[in-house]
């Protein structure tokens, strides 16, 4: 049975599209070669997009009331200004002596809701998570515009969605402040393609807010996108890392 909607959907979608960015970008500023584990570090902070009505609405409805340990199920909303979804994709510049860099795109326009049971986390559910991929920003405006216009057509299909369907590893009891580590599987949709995706999640609840990080690896080809490959100039990997860093209260 599907669980209610919340935050990790878009992450995936977002990132899937983002992956395609690399193809259309101008060579980014040289960076250190990524590790085998694909843990890229952006050379410079990206510019967060201006908040949209969707982000403002999500923040306006968020509650800041502390929730005592042992309370019944509470509803927490992702706070856009304090959360972000990103993609990371390796690019090889063939015309620059096979220079390897990692393209990273970020958006803070995220919406999602979590129904957390502090007494029994196994009863917790996450609703649909949406990410505005039209707002993805990297170190290359050329890349970003190509994603919106051509690769993801995100100007036409701005939302990537993730609907959780199953959870693995949530405990039957919880102590406030304890770290939760679990897997969340669901259906991720980018434009007109939906596939199952599993996220690795680490989160902590302090009685007032839930703070966490979810990561997954996807292949662009799984979403019917071809990894950018410009003969003699650039070749992007098919693999992309998607990350959702969230604050929900």
Give the name of the CATH architecture.
Beta Barrel
In percent, how much strand structure appears in the residues?
A: 35-45%
How many discrete domains?
1
Strand and helix order: HHHEEEEEEEHEEEEEEE
The best one-word shape is elongated
At the fourth CATH level, what is the homologous superfamily? Lipid/polyisoprenoid-binding, YceI-like
What CATH calls the topology is: Lipocalin
Radius of gyration: 18 Å
Summing up helix and strand content along with how strands pair, one would put the structural category as: mainly beta
Q: What average pLDDT do the residues reach?
A: 78
3D architecture notes:
- It is elongated, with a radius of gyration of 18 Å.
- The protein contains 4 helices and 14 strands.
- Helix content is 14%, strand content 38%.
- The protein has helices at residues 9-19, 21-24, 53-60, 141-151; strands at residues 74-77, 84-93, 99-107, 110-111, 113-116, 125-126, 129-132, 159-168, 179-190, 193-205, 210-219, 229-230, 234-236, 239-248.
- The protein has a single domain, classed as Lipid/polyisoprenoid-binding, YceI-like (Lipocalin), CATH 2.40.128.110.
- Strands 2, 3, 4, 7, 8, 9, 10, 11, 12, 13 and 14 form an 11-stranded antiparallel sheet that branches.
- The chain is mainly β.
């Amino acid at each position: 049975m599907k669980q209610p909607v919340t935050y990790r959907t878009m992450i995936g979608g977002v990132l899937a599209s983002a992956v395609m960015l690399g193809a259309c970008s101008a060579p980014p500023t040289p960076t250190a070669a990524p590790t085998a584990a694909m843990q890229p570090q952006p050379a410079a902070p990206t510019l967060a997009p201006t908040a949209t009505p969707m982000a403002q609405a999500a923040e306006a409805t968020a509650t800041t009331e502390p929730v005592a340990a042992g309370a019944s199920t509470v509803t927490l909303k992702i706070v856009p200004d304090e959360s972000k979804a990103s993609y990371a994709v390796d690019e090889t510049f063939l015309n620059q002596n096979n220079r390897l860099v990692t393209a990273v795109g970020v958006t803070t326009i995220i919406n999602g809701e979590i129904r957390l049971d502090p007494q029994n986390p196994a009863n917790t559910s996450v609703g649909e998570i949406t990410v505005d991929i039209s707002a993805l920003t990297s170190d290359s405006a050329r890349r970003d515009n190509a994603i919106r216009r051509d690769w993801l057509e995100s100007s036409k299909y701005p939302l990537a969605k993730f609907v959780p369907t199953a959870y693995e590893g949530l405990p039957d009891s919880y102590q406030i402040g304890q770290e939760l580590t679990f897997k969340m599987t669901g259906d991720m949709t980018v434009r007109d393609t939906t596939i199952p995706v599993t996220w690795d999640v680490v989160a902590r609840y302090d009685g007032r807010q839930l703070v966490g990080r979810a990561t997954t690896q996807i292949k662009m080809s799984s979403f019917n996108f071809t990894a950018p490959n410009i003969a003699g100039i650039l070749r992007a990997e098919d693999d992309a890392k998607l990350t959702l860093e969230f604050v929900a209260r």
